[in-house]
Amino acid sequence: MNRRMVFYTLGQMICIEAVLLLLPLIVSLIYGEMIAAKAFGITIALAVVLGVLLQLICKTKNRVISVEKTTLLYFVIAC
């Protein structure tokens, strides 16, 4: 099992989640909810840091993931 590939892909997904969190951040800024905006900002920052670190630490030359590894990744995400 290639754990590095799984964690690399997990890092990518965390970065995508950080980008998707920009929408609620913008909405909370529009409505003037500064406490919620601060919470979203902190969450986005932590997600970007964690996602980038996972991608940098677990970078592999072979970026092809097999069916078994994909299934494992789905179980990791679902839990």
Please, could you describe this protein's structure?
By secondary structure, the protein is mostly helical. 80% of the residues lie in helices and 0% in strands. The chain has four helices and no strands. It has helices at 3-20, 22-30, 34-57, 67-78. The protein is elongated and about 45 Å long. The two termini are 19 Å apart. The model has no long low-confidence stretch (mean pLDDT 86).
| Main sheet properties | none
**Helical residues, percent:** over 70%
Compute the number of strand runs. 0
Averaged pLDDT, please? 86
Shape: elongated
Number of contiguous helices: 4
SSE order, one letter for each helix or strand? HHHH
**What percentage of amino acids are in beta strands?**
under 5%
Structural class: mainly alpha
Distance between the termini: 19 Å
Radius of gyration: 15 Å
Itemize the secondary structure elements and their pairings.
Layout: H1 3-20, H2 22-30, H3 34-57, H4 67-78
Helix pairs in contact: 1-3, 1-4, 2-3
List keywords for this structure.
mainly alpha
Summarize this structure briefly.
By secondary structure, the chain is mostly helical. The protein has helices spanning 3-20, 22-30, 34-57, 67-78.
